[in-house]
Amino acid sequence: MNIEVLSPFILTLVTFVPAGGALLLLLIPRRERDIRLFAFTISLLTFILSLHLPVHFKANLAGFQYEIDHHWIASPNIHYHMGIDGISMWLVLLTTFLTPLCVLISWNSIHDRAKEFFILLLVLETALIGVFTSLDLFLFYFFWESTLIPMALLIGIFGHERRVYAAVKFFLYTMIASVFMLAAILWLYAKTGSFDFVTIRDAIAAGSVPGIVTAAQLLFLGFFIAFAVKVPLFPVHTWLPDAHVEAPTAGSVLLAGVLLKMGTYGMLRFNLGLFPVQARRNAGWIVVLALIGIIYGALVAMVQPNMKKLIAYSSISHLGFVVLGIFSFTPTGLNGAMFVMLAHGVSTGALFMLAGVLHERRHTYEIREFGGLATSMPTYAAFYLFIVLASVGLPLLNGFVGEFLVLSGAFRANAWYGVLGATGVIWSACYLLWMYQRVFFGKLAQDVNKSLPDLSGFEKAALWPTAVAALVMGSAPLLWLHAIDPAVRNSLAQFRQVAVKVIGQ
Amino acid sequence: MNPAYQPYVNPGGLDYIRILPELILSVFGMMVMVLEPAVDEKGSQKTLGAIALAGAVGAIAASLYQAYYPGYAFWKMIRVDSFSVFFHVLVTMIAAVVILTSFEYMRVQRIRAGEYYALILFGTVGMCLMSSAVELVLIFIALEISSISTYVLAGVRRKEASSSESSLKYFLLGSFATAFFLYGVALMFGASGSTNLDQISKALRTQPVPALAYAGVALMFVGLGFKVASAPFHVWTPDVYEGAPAPVVGFMSTGPKAAAFAVLLRVLFEANAPGRVWLIWMSAALSMTLGNIGALVQNNVKRLLAYSSIAHAGYLLMAFAATPQTGMSAAIFYTAAYAAMNLGAFAVVSHFANIGEKYVTLEDYAGLGRRSPMLAATLTLFLLSLIGIPTTGGFFAKFYVFGAALQSHLVWLTIIGVINSAIGAYYYLRIIVMMYMRDGHEEIPISKIPLGLGTALAISAAATIYLGVFPGRVVDFALRSAGELVR
Asked: Under the phi-then-psi rule, with left for phi > 0, alpha for psi from -120 to 50, and beta for the rest, what region is B272?
């Protein structure tokens, strides 16, 4: 059978298989083992289906692929329009890659209400994939908001002590911010009569949207606020540490691994795609915020006594790199930003899994509770070291490529951006390695730590893929970049046309 | 000769078809009344309920059947059009769902009241008539039929002081409000020389609008504003909702409200009422703000939902300030979506409340997610819809209303609306948080969901999701009915 016949439906399949699985899961009796196994099968199936995307992806083509476009609602004119390019494809893959691992890492840690847990996880997966595949602004918003509920419930039900506070904070922050985006989307619809991303983009580029000149700045900000909270950019980052510390491991993995990328993806797709002129005009203060995020996040991470909080702040720092790369407007910087997103998804996902492993054994994330773990848990220590090194940006591992590209892009845009950004790399080495030293080296001071069991089979099964991915991404980045690069150049090319046109007027 | 004069013609068969749903409801209502003393005490509730349900279902069928016979009836006092059919179906469905919810409630509360079901049917007659009447005096009569039934229904928990208080309050303030409406009708008659909406519309269009007409519209708005619980005529709502039986609150907050909105739509748009935008603007902004702020501090779920219903009346009114075509269809859609989610929410509340409505505080809902996952999940769905989260009807309802307001350049009103929906999210979330993230009270009994209630919940949930995923057909219908009304 020619597998390419799947291509027209593949996005629909990949998006909705998890949700379908969640529906079936409702019907399965409450036997934990069956539920876990079923959830794993579904998420694995989704991953396998999603492999279709890169295999049949035509890297030399600009524009969207695997497109599907149906009428959904006549009034307002909403389409079921999906499609991916090199940017969104890898984010879809990242989601489908991490979800089965989330199921594995939760295998033995979620007992209470396992059914609800896995249903929420699968629903979340559908919503996340939908965010990256939709090309209709309405559909996009629909999925964007849909990620909120399962994530908030995952935190609020399965989290730790202050879970309710964290869940509500997370919900309100992102909900309120996305209202601004909704307003911007509605404005665009009112003026263009369409929610279609491509139509609106072309209309704006052609200058055929009435009133866009005066409104563009506000529209840009409307989108930007929603995305900035999600990233999170300094100073709207305060929900993130709380959410991470309280979330269950799988929640943290998806939160850091994928949810944050929704923000940077949105900036790349909508802020740059729809409002190139405003993006350039506003780049100055946005880059400053990104740089503050990089440095501030790293410095705060340094002094965290709590391992999970440390990783959370490191995310703020790393995502600062992504924003820096995006708003450098150089192909190198954008490629780098994309690569950092993917690399951060893999390695921070893994870091959260590793932190979760420890929490399961000791029910604490406090760094001072540990020390000398390298003797009692050698395999665990080895994995941890590998991932820490990947995160720090050791050449040949995945963190290096992205940060390098971002920084060289930033240098090209403005030398100071590069210089200040580069300090972030140093800081990240400091806080991660210092944390590693305190947890794994030294004497085994506490008796409880002496008898901690090493990694279980399921935990290893969850961690191996991330380690392999970190290595492959670091040593053969072109496998990813060959699809990213055309998409990035394509969006920049449009960018230049518009910029030239506006300046020429 | 007076152009309004028409020679007397005997009503024909078509006239009766055009009031068929009302006829069916009245006949079944009377059957319930007659049978009530005849059936034995134990089986009575079920039998009477089943008869009432049959009546409501028959009325739904009749309303759909009516759609094939549009036109005037009874000397142009009644007009059957897509608009009236829509509201007929909506109101009768509300009645059916409420009857389904009541089976269990009446049994658990040990209320023996055959007239309960009859009153629901009679009230529905009034609401149906309100949506098809195009003659102000008939509208007034219909309004009274529906109001008087609901006054009594509010007091059906006879032994509870709060229920009697609720009934009395509702009755006193309600009569006061209907008097305003009647006064408005009188002034309108003075201003335009007719009580027929078509004639009024014509009169207002051809001659300069007399000041009297403005006063008439304002007074009618007072009367209807009371019925829909919009600010500043909302003060009765929390107390009445708190005391009235939970299924009746579900009924009151959707049925009469939908009907009153239908009248408001007809009066404001069909009669092309002057001065409507500012009047509505103020009332909408006030309702949203007062409703949401009031709801923030409530600990009784019924009171909370009462304030939320005030807020929703505000969102709905936004549509009335918009341009007729878009505003009307948005309002029609909102009414339907609101009915589905609110009825569902009150169905859950009435199941959970238990004997004497003991468990109605927020605290009682703690841990419901663990103890009764299905009940909690359905309530969550309705609450998410009330917040306006995508994939629920509430989302599109807000979406259309805000969209209509924006298109009519009511930017500030839209901003107020958006801010209010953000505030609103907080108190609905409180309930969800309670249910899922707090430990429960084991001593609160949770009984199994009986068939009737299960059906009611399933209908409401299905409607909420259907309107949230495929709003297209209902919107088309709403647009079509709006097109017929606004010519």
From this structure: left
